Amino acid sequence: MLETMAKLHIIGHQSELDETLAVLHGLRSVHLIDVSDDATVPLPPLAVDEQHLQRIEDLRYLRARLGSVLALIPNLPEPDISIPEMTETNLDRMRGELNELAPRVEQLVRHIDDLTREQETLPRHVASLTKLLPLVPGLAQLHGYGTAVLLVESRHSSVLGELNVQLTEKLAGNFEIISDHVDTNTVGAVLVYPRDHSEEVASLLGREAISRVRLPRQYETMSFREAISAMKTRLADLPEEIASSQRELDVLVAAHADWAAVGSYLEQHLDQLGAIRHLGATAHTFVISGWVPERAADEIEKVVAARVGEKVIVERASVEEGEVPPVLMHNPAPARPFEFLVRLLAIPRYGSVDPTLLMGLFVPLFFGIMLGDVIYGAILLGLAVTASRYLRNRPSALRDLSRVFVLSASWAILWGVVYGEYLGDLGHRLVGIEPIWINREEALEPLLLFSLAIGAGHVTLGLLLGVWQSLKFHRRHETLERLMLLLTLGALFTLAAIAADFLPRSLVTPSFAAIVVATVVLMVLGGGMGLVMAPLEIIGLVGNVLSYLRIAALGVASVYLARVANELGAAAPLWLGILIASLFHALNLALGAFSPTVQALRLHYVEFFSKFYDEGGDEFRPFGGLDNRVAST
Amino acid sequence: MEGGLIEIGLGLKAGLLGIGAGFAVGLAAIGTGYAQGRIGSAGIGALTEKPELLGRVILLVAIPETLVILGFAVAAMIIILLGG
Fold it and tell me: Across-strand partners of A191?
């Protein structure tokens, strides 16, 4: 369902403006209307002076500065929103602290990062150099010579020969290059050259497809043996150095635990300062215009009166023609995860049908009918429950999706019992479990008819909702069009029932007459294009119902894939068979989770919604952010 | 040749019906795949610009699937009604 909205005007003396905005911000229930868009408030916007703009700029800078520091500090305590109001003096203190301490915090965090990186890279250098050390036993004593450690993939080892030729040309043979395999895929090489020729060597190595092992600067001038020894000493010292820097950072952060709270305060205060440009004003008063959920209007009135006082009044405002309130969905808790699926398409128009509840019923049902396997359903249910618990306190599309899967998987288990499917036909093979209703492997015909019946029912429900909605919005043309489509659908069902000998043949003529009448009316309603569009619309309607055959198609595909897994498993020796069957069942499960979800959504978005869904609403965005209380109570 | 078919228990009629049903689904699936490929690539392009269009893109990509479902319906009719 969509919340009924009420329009409020909050009028008061300008001396109470800050307090009023703070209260409304805390209530998180008022969607502000810009007075320039509100015909019921014939007042100019509140004048914003230079000082006000300057303050916004100052606070934005402070928020950005604080944000950059906070981003560097993980695990900061949750902000306590109820901190005392930040006065100008407090903000000045904050600025001073940030200017003084932020560079130190940044420096410490960077230092810890560098040390951690060093701790990760040094063991790799030690390993490389240790492997190369036997190649150059005499190098440790060479002075006036530089060394370059090179690693080349074995398949490109010919590049070392080319390097040898070019170095001979440039250094007149005054160098040594020694290479050997350091592992199966890599050839290590050590190049020894006079330090006077460092630049030439560097430029030559830069041109070749060789990765040069770059040692940290402090080890570059050392011999291999010295470097390995120095690196090992450094590795032993690093943990204490990291711990010491971390301790210093913790002390700094602990002394300023209110920074996160100040960040929250700044967000709130900037919101309030930004809201001022939406307000109307006279010389001494202000007017705030906003939408609130009807059920919250009285409470807002009471809270403002209690916390701000009599200088501010809250009154209900009339809604002018053409004014469209914002949309807030309000559904029972089990259906709420499906709001995200409705929003995925578009937000419904205010006052129209909210299909969330219906999606909450039909999407899992269709999923269950398509997948219909007890074991697959149980595995999905386990995964969905785990994901749902893990994401419990993190509002996100993923959390909603996991809850959708909890319901869908439950239906899959139920339909699995109906079809007698436990990993396809494995239940039947092993313990002879029989279906309660039909075996999908054999009974294709009843399954197809069942899918068509679901389609007919679902499309009819969509058309009925469409008729009700058109009547509500007084759209006569649309109402008649949908009634004619209903009539056509009814006549087609009758003809199908006659063909199956469920109804007498005497109804054939009235049924055809109904289809002709409906077609002619649709043509007239369609105007010039009606002649072409009306028959197309009727064909489309039949196509919509036939589209539900996918429920049967996916079900049959799923059960046959499961059977293939079982057959292949049975053909191999026991353990290999179990492994092969498990792999195929895992593949089928992945397909079984994905395809029925997409197809169930498609049946809703295309076949069902097209009969009634009225999109184009403006989302309810309350001042201060959406409060869970507003959305859920 | 005829004797061989009789030996494995399938008549020529059943074989032709099977081929016909296969064509009905297979050709429809090729058509659907072609359409979905074109729509999907355009949809991904749109999503990089506007991620909020995800729902609409799913919808557009899913629309041509009706073709293969109709192919499936024809195949099922061939097997059920003619194969009877």
Answer: A148, A177
Give the gap in angstroms from C-alpha B21 to the nearest C-alpha of chain A: 14
pLDDT tens per residue, range A103-144: 888 888 888 988 998 888 888 788 777 777 776 655 545 667
Is the model more confident about A552 or about A283?
A552
> What 3 state SS string does A389-429 have?
HHCCCCCCHHHHHHHHHHHHHHHHHHHHHHHCCCCCCHHHH
Interface test with A, best of B66, B70, B81 (most A CBs within 10 A): B66
| B14 CA: distance to closest CA in chain A (Å) | 17
Task: Write the residue in A546, A602, A606 that is nearest to B73 by C-beta.
Answer: A546
The tokens describing A122, both together, are: 């040094």
Nearest to A601 among B58, B69, B76 (CB): B58
**CA-wise closest residue to B23 among B79, B80, B63, B66:** B79
Q: Does domain B15-82 correspond to CATH entry 1.20.20.10?
A: yes
Give me the interface pTM, i.e. the ipTM: 0.71
Q: Where in chain A is the domain with CATH 3.30.70.2750?
A: 143-222
Tokens 């009316």, residue located: A521
Of the candidate ranges A13-17, A393-397, A400-404, A447-451, the one whose mean pLDDT is the lowest: A393-397
Q: What is the model's pLDDT at position A491?
A: 94
CATH dotted code for A143-222: 3.30.70.2750
Residue of A344, A342, A354 whose CA lies nearest to A612: A354
- Which residue carries 């009306």 as its tokens? A534
**Maximum C-alpha span of chain B:** 63
Tell me the pLDDT band of A87, cut-offs 50, 70 and 90.
Answer: low
* Percent of chain A whose pLDDT exceeds 90: 28
Contact A393, A378 (CB under 8 A): no
The predicted model scores a pTM of 0.72
